[in-house]
Amino acid sequence: MPELVFFSGTMDCGKSTLALQIEHNRSARGLQGMIFTRDDRAGEGKLSSRLGLVTDAVEVADDQDLYAHLVHHLSQGGRADYVIADEAQFLAPGQIDQLARVVDDLGVDVFAFGITTDFRSKLFPGSQRLVELADRVEVLQVEALCWCGARATHNARTIGGEMVVEGAQVVVGDVNQAEDIGYEVLCRRHHRRRMTAATARAGALSPDVLPIASA
Ligand SMILES: Nc1ncnc2c1ncn2[C@@H]1O[C@H](COP(=O)(O)OP(=O)(O)O)[C@@H](O)[C@H]1O
Ligand SMILES: Cc1cn([C@H]2C[C@H](O)[C@@H](COP(=O)(O)O)O2)c(=O)[nH]c1=O
Question: Sign of the CA dihedral 49, 46, 7, 147?
Fold first, then answer.
């Protein structure tokens, strides 16, 4: 049975790498995929992994109908034995419904990859719809780690290393960018306390508070 599978995890846990591996294994056996992405850090129409691999992809537009795109492609004699959708958190809920329709009406597997929650630990609308509709939600096995060594479960947005909780939901960026706007993965405890690697280090280095002399 064809499936809609949502591979989910924090930033930097290997989602795009897995997407590229799925694409490689299938294309090595003569299958042809349709690859969608949106706002990849490598630029428009790219699906990239931090391991250095990159492939071309269809850059999804705001109002694009993904089901209609597949039907048009097939009607022109194209093939689509499977679909990969990376950065799926950026897709609109309606586009996730269209991917479900690709599975149900066209009988094509859809593998979607994305982060579930934003820097405020709120669901992205596209990810929410995937959780609602997917046949399976798979959490990636390679765990990203918080600076404390615990499994990272949350994404923090940072400015100059400090966690921020105000701002637009979508700001394309990367981890390990101490300057300017960046991201850092944290365990829930440290996300709740807004403790990033930089602020934890600063706290550890600050001198003990001197006792207040009594009058
Ligand atoms: N220099 C490196 N050596 C080995 N593995 C690396 C290196 N850089 C990144 N990685 C691996 O790549 C993962 C990030 O992969 P990527 O597919 O870009 O993540 P995602 O799409 O989930 O953000 C890291 O968690 C790590 O396992
Ligand atoms: C938490 C969070 C992330 N983003 C952006 C930052 C990156 O461009 C992508 C995630 O990419 P990855 O391949 O999973 O590392 O999402 C965002 O726009 N808003 C957020 O809150």
Answer: positive
